[in-house]
Every structure is written in C-alpha cells, then in structure tokens.
Amino acid sequence: MPMNSFFSKDTDRCIDIHCHILPEIDDGSHSLNESIDMLREAKANGITDIIATPHVRSRSFDFEYAEERYNLLKPYAEDFDIGLHLGFEVNCEALVEFEFKDFDKMCIRGSDSFLLEFRNFSLPLNWQMIIKKIQSEGLQVIIAHPERYDFIQRSLDIADGLVDMGCRLQCDSFVFDLNRFDKSRKAAYRLIDRGLVSWIASDSHAPNHFDGYKEVYDDLKVDLLRNSIDFY
What we know:
By secondary structure, this protein is of the alpha/beta class.
C-alpha cells in the first residue's frame, strides 16, 4: 500500500529521492550544521520527505556508519516536519565488488526501490545483465541523473532501452538552471519531452543546491508519468 508518492495528483507530499544530506559520509554535507541548513532549504522549497542517498562506490562502504549518521540527523528532520528515509546511490562498479549480493543493504530502506548510477563516460558492456540481476531480487531500478551521462547525451536510444527494461529515470533539478547550451540541460529536456523521466530530484550536496527546486517542481510535475514510490 503506497504511503507516499512524488508528484502524485492525490497527495501534497513531495519526496526528494536523491540527496547527499547525511553529514560527514561522502562528498555531500560536511557537518551536522550543514545538514540542518540543507533541511531548512529543503523545507523552503516545498520538500516534505527526503531520501538520504550516500554514495556506495566500493565494498569498503560502511553501512553501519551510514545508519549512525542517519539516526543522528533524523530528529532534526522531524523538527522541520520532514520525513527522512535512508537509501543509497549505488555505482554499478560497486555491485561487481559485492559479487551481486547484499541488495537488501543497498536499496531504499522500507521499499523495493534501488538507486543505480553509472560512470559518466562509460556504460559497462554488461549493463543489461546488471539491471536484470537487480530486478531478479524483486527491486525497482531507478537510474540516477541519466542526463549527465555522455552515452545518453549522444543517444537517447539507450534511455529508451533502460525504460523498456522497466527502469525509471531520475533527473537532477539543478541542470535546468544551467546554460541553455549545456549538454546535461539539453539532454534532460529531451528525456522529458520523450516521456522517459519519472522524477526530478535535488541531488543536493550543499544547502544552495536546493535553489530553484520548487520552480522546477511546479513547472514539470505534470509531465512526470511514473511517479510513485512505495514504503512498506
């Protein structure tokens, strides 16, 4: 039974499904105070729920430390009336190191959603096998920021292939404020025009990365089709 949905017509809740808000864990927030400032900016931009998604880029990732950082920040999120959920942004190369195990650790907690990222300039030859392996665990694959990948900027056919396989695509809100000649910005609009995008997320690494999020939300929410994420 869905509890929350992003850009849903029947709810006022807005979930930012990709955000590096946990303090002192990756290239996102550098301190608890910075994370609190990020919560404040998220609130100002109409966000009601945040999925914290630290990078998982190798087998050395410390899931217990991520849980600790999450538990530290959660009470502050509650003070802002923001629901904070724990997830991860998992690089496909890390899955090889994990030998395609421990998917339960890496999915968005309390859901069947899995946020996957590729390297910007190289799509692995076995990318279809990687996705099918994740899906075989009963997980919904969400592809992080496809507009930033060189191979998608060059050919939207790959994005079509991802969606045809059952993946959902998530664009970053900040790309819409980039120079109109920027490749990421142009790719994002092309993906949306083709109806391939399910979510716009902040992918925030600092408080100012939420700037303009609400405007993007208001402008594009009616164009986003596959827009629900379920929490158990």
